[in-house]
């Protein structure tokens, strides 16, 4: 009786060991740079830490400092919210329209699809450098449209300009996701609706959109996450200026931690968690709004 | 937002639409597609055109072909400015190493999650999902401390960029989902024949997983080649910069030499664009499937 038991145990132990050998290279890095890092960041968010002297526990004071900080309240927070509220709906709607048109019987569909996707594979730094040049005061955009707008050097225009660049560069990915979603809708549903005499707009709003709900939710979530974390374009094109008019939360975290003469690591960590909570809350809200009305439409 | 009847014109209803309306609609569609084509390609085209023009002409009125034409900017970037090849090399090393190592480690981890039973599996997999939802800014600060003054003392070295990038929550998640989707019969047969897990994984599983492996490798390469924030935080001297970092630094140092910035930018976007053209199918399938399986 004893022998088979121990053999089974040994076999099982062998499997555990093998599993952990497979897992370990990934697991070590994952634990150090993801799991432990998140724990450390959480601890740091309750401290005052400037890298030079050990972290000093201050409890919720760090969060209070963030939430009463002028730069956060008057610039980073409203700028980020404006950014999300403009960019997410526009990029979602535009990419849906383009995907919808591409899903019709179109010649050169592959060519268009490839061309539209190019901005999405290009690095954000290169895109920012190109647009920094195009949107210069003496640049091609002002020459082309006979305007004299200070796209990136005025407080009125800097944020909208960065919004435009970001919308432009993200539409490719979102269009591809929508296109895949559109192709997943069974033709039989359209045919049935047509036989029932539904008009084209009716089909779009009562069939296409509800059938796409899960995809729309995904695209919006992707957009929200991306917008809340926008950094590269801002760093390259305006560095948060002019007069903090393009300072966003992600940029402020970087600034506090790595650009201020006395690094504010603890306070930056607190702001990073506030950012995380905001993204999470808005994603949940999305889920309510987008999926709430259409539970029946989900496969 | 009109007539979905387009999709299947043979259905009787489509004939109800008058012909002129049909033509107008098509014109509208193609108009929109052409407009967006100009918008999405135009900026790249202009940047290429002006990178072939002398630097004094960088703000010349818009033109579609380089006039006057010169190769000077590329010559400066490739041979006179010795930092540039260095950045290219740094970027290639970082992206090359990360692409191979991360893809392999994520595949191994994913295989363990998908096929083996071990204590802690559910907890670890849940942790993977949770970390995917937490924004990168949260780990930025602790990782800087760990890589730098805290533990590894790797600041301003390429390893500082490579080390934390080896493990991706997304990669392991993607590979786990893939391995779960393939049938187990082959492996069970091999196990009965006495093959070990390692033989099975490297001889049987990896060869049939080319599509997801290639997709993950391509996304990793694209992501690391274009990455900006993390290298910006850990790399400090220009000799150690990656290409995006170097281009941005060059723009600040020599802001009158924008033609060179444009020429240099091409070296950053071209490899990715070429890869994209060769492996388009994998990019698109990867995006479509990861997009829908969430």
Q: What does the model show?
A:
- The complex is a heterodimer of chains A (299) and B (294).
- Chain A has two domains: 2-44; 64-297, MetI-like fold (Orthogonal Bundle), CATH 1.10.3720.
- Chain A has helices spanning 2-44, 61-67, 70-102, 109-121, 124-134, 140-144, 158-184, 187-195, 200-228, 232-237, 249-259, 265-292; strands spanning 47-48, 56-57.
- Chain A has a two-stranded antiparallel ribbon with strand order 1-2.
- The relative contact order of chain A is 0.12.
- Helices cover 74% and strands 1% of the residues of chain A.
- With 299 residues, chain A is mostly helical.
- The longest helix of chain B is centred in the first third of the chain and has 33 residues, at 19-51.
- Chains A and B meet through helix 1, helix 3, helix 4, helix 5 and helix 6 of A and helix 1, helix 3, helix 4, helix 5 and helix 9 of B.
How do the SSEs of chain A run, as a string of H and E?
Answer: HEEHHHHHHHHHHH
Q: What does the average pLDDT of chain B come to?
A: 88
Radius of gyration of chain A, in angstroms, nearest whole number: 25 Å
Uncertain spans of chain A, ≥5 residues at pLDDT below 50? 294-299
Kindly give the count of domains of chain B: 2
Based on secondary structure, the structural category of chain A is mainly alpha
CATH class group of the largest domain in chain A: Mainly Alpha
**CATH fold descriptor of the largest domain in chain B:** MetI-like fold
What is the distance, rounded to the nearest whole angstrom, between the alpha carbons of the first and last residues of chain A?
51 Å
Number of helices of chain A: 12
Count the E strands of chain A.
2
Domains of chain A, number: 2
Annotated CATH homologous superfamily of the largest domain in chain A: MetI-like
